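User: Can you model how S-adenosylmethionine sits in this protein?
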Amino acid sequence: MAKLFFLLSGESESLPAAEVKAILEAEGYRYANTEVLDQTLRLESELSSVQAVQIRAAFTRLCALELFKSDATETEISKTASNTDFEAVLKPGESFSVRINRIKNYADQAINTMRLEGKLGKIILQFTEDTKVNLKNPDKTFIGIITNEKLVFGLKLTEIQTKTFSERRPRKKPFFHPSAMPSKLARCMVNLAHGKTEDLVLDPFCGTGSSLIEAAYIGCRALGVDAQRRMVLGCRKNLQHFNISPEGLILADARHLPFTRVDCVVTDPPYGRSSSTLKSTTKQLVQEVLASSLGLLGVGQRICIALPIRVNQQGQVDHMAKDLAGFVKGLGYRTIESHLVYIHRSLTREIMVYEKT
Ligand SMILES: C[S@@+](CC[C@H](N)C(=O)[O-])C[C@H]1O[C@@H](n2cnc3c(N)ncnc32)[C@H](O)[C@@H]1O
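Assistant: Here's the modeled complex, given as structure tokens:
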């Protein structure tokens, strides 16, 4: 097992770390000694797990091999760095650069990042043989993250380009609908549901196909259902645009799913504003789709579903997941985790992960 750390996106508080852990679980990597810091996740796992995170993650920016963690003061950092075996990762003749990222304002009184980059560069030069600094095109990049008054420092293994997600954002798809989910969130939900290569991933409220597209991009087989013909047609157009052939895309009612078995369910039911609940209520639909999905899943398989937390003008809160907790347990699911995604003053999406017991 290697000591690894991940620089996480600040787009959501709890989703990025949960996504990395879910990817490791889905791909069968063991991990231990997890520590979640602000926008940084530290854990021990196999080195090759980084590749899975690189291919799959929506909310990770960078993966690194940890060399040390220290309090974020220059004296502590210099002391710890001087006791670090840089020769294990930097060979004679190799060039390097040092980059320090500060999360928010952590240690801004104690640390000047440019000065620290220079200082660490000198220490690395001092403790390695025949190495040199190259800021433009280094053989190796050392990366430090200042977070929670700590410095986590190591060797960059991979940087993750999230540009491709913006190429798949709702407005970029040939069929647009205001209810469409952002591509990064859709990918993250597929990850939380443990979808993996060749798995059959069902979205029973597929709309424009965001989750199906993200599932297909990591090698899953996509199965979509929507009760509106125009959505099914639009979804087909979007899938074709990205060269995706779904396992199935049908006009049907999510409450009566005409399938026998899937590997996981990823879905975003209608909240009755930009997308219609078609004469039902969101709560009824959610209850019925949780019931109809249960029969398609095996024990230990998951559904990841986005539920609303609504606040009305009087400040009353309608918290659907909380409301349904007893129902969900009674059906035969265990709640794995919940994550909040703020939409606007009166609506927050709660990403729920349930596992069949
Ligand atoms: C919030 S949208 C899904 C958006 C989707 N995640 C996307 O990114 O485009 C909900 C969808 O559920 C569909 N829907 C509503 N009631 C349904 C039902 N009973 N069965 C299946 N689909 C239904 C709507 O037509 C709508 O397309």
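A couple of observations from the model: The CA atoms of residues 29 and 49 lie 7 Å apart. The longest strand covers residues 60-71.
User: Helpful, thanks.
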